[in-house]
Amino acid sequence: MAYSLALLEIANLTPAFVVLDRCLKAAGVELLGVESTMEAGQVIKLIGPTADVEAAGEAGAALARQMGSQATVVILPAPAPGVQTLSTQPPEYIPMLDIMDQRVKRTRSSGKSSMREATMDAPDALGLLETQGLVAALHATDTMLKTSAVSLVGKEKIGGAYVTIVVRGDVAAVQAAVAAGRETVERLGGRLIMADVITRPHPELLALLPKLELAR
User: Fold this and answer.
1) Which of 46, 80, 110, 192 is least surrounded, with the fewest CB atoms within 10 Å of its CB?
2) Contacts from 58-66 at CB under 8 Å and sequence distance 24+?
């Protein structure tokens, strides 16, 4: 069976996570990781049978454009060994930005992470809220945790002052929390990149996140 590599670049982390969940649910592909361009762009790397990789890439790109995000997808049939090596390198820590250059599943060694690793059962839903600016992100987090029965998973940075807050809980609670967080950012006049809810998140998406749950 012919295998291919899909490279799907999405602007910003929250849209990338939403798109990744759609890709994984659309076809039988394996996630290699999500690599940063060191700017807003995040490159989702998927491998699998060519037909599945194409289907996943198309589904992800279509969703990104529907959400108003930029999306570029490239399919590499039978990628050269050098490309495979580059696509599966372990994450590296970038001290100047205090971030990792990519996110990989917890089954791999990921070195220093921007969020602590612990144990987390699969939630009914994940709430994602991304801002440009830490003050708005932390203010929104405080609002989300005080107004809804959700737990904090943590925060992720990709450089450029972009901050993504991740919460978990049942669907209704997460939806209420994200709505409250969005309202807080807008009231502050902060720059909201995206606020969204992923229901029944795919296990491979969850494997990118640290297993962390903090008290509300």
Assistant:
1) 80
2) 59/22, 59/23, 59/26, 59/27, 60/8, 60/10, 60/19, 60/20, 60/22, 60/23, 60/26, 61/8, 61/19, 63/18, 63/19, 63/22, 64/8, 64/10, 64/15, 64/19
Name the residue with higher pLDDT: 107 or 65.
65
Contact indicator for 53, 6 with CB cutoff of 8 Å: yes
pLDDT by residue (tens digit) across 51-80? 999 999 999 999 999 999 889 999 999 999
pLDDT (tens digit per residue) in 168-192? 999 999 999 999 999 999 999 999 9
d(CA 48, CA 54): 9
Q: 82-86, 118-122, 131-135: which has the minimum mean pLDDT?
A: 118-122
